[in-house]
Amino acid sequence: MQVSEAQGEVRAVYLNGAVGQLVSAAIWLASATLGSAVSIRAAVLALVFGGMLIFPITQLVLRARGRRYELAAANPLRHLAMQIAFTVPMTLLVAGAAALRNVAWFYPACAVIVGAHYLPFVFLYGMWQYALLSGLLVTGGIAYAFLLPHAFAPAGWFTGAVLALYGAWMTLLPGSRRSEPRTS
Predict the structure, then answer these.
(1) Is residue 141 part of a domain?
(2) pTM greater than 0.85 (yes/no)
(3) Which candidate in 75, 102, 144, 146 could, as Cys together with 155 as Cys, close a disulfide (CB 3.0–4.6 Å)?
(4) What is the pLDDT of residues 157-175, one digit of tens each?
């Protein structure tokens, strides 16, 4: 399988990443809602534990739509996708350390981590749009940490909104509405 074919399968199976972005957005927005209305602790727990469920929920949504939900065993990018996914939990301690210093830095730190994790998606999906998403989240996380260093929820709302808009945008691009590949 050539790289371009492997990338095409990634785009086709995961609908340009639209479903994953929308699931991620929902978790970020739910967490930001908890951070605004309930407590910081509830918000942090929702993002950490909800974040662990992004990929399984994405697969459930794809399955519910009658779509194939995983890459072919022959796809050489299958392992890269898994490695990229593990970068977030492996670096989450950085967000925890930032939050110990200033709890309002939790969302900005997570936005930077998640944004950086999207950069390899440029190659994984073969889509330059992931460089834009990466840049928006990293820049937004840094900006919120410096401009609103004592406000907890705004960076969570920002990240959730960016992910939702990005997911919606990805549904409009070619390949996001393909009938293939479906489950048999």
Answers:
(1) yes
(2) yes
(3) 144
(4) 999 999 999 999 998 887 6
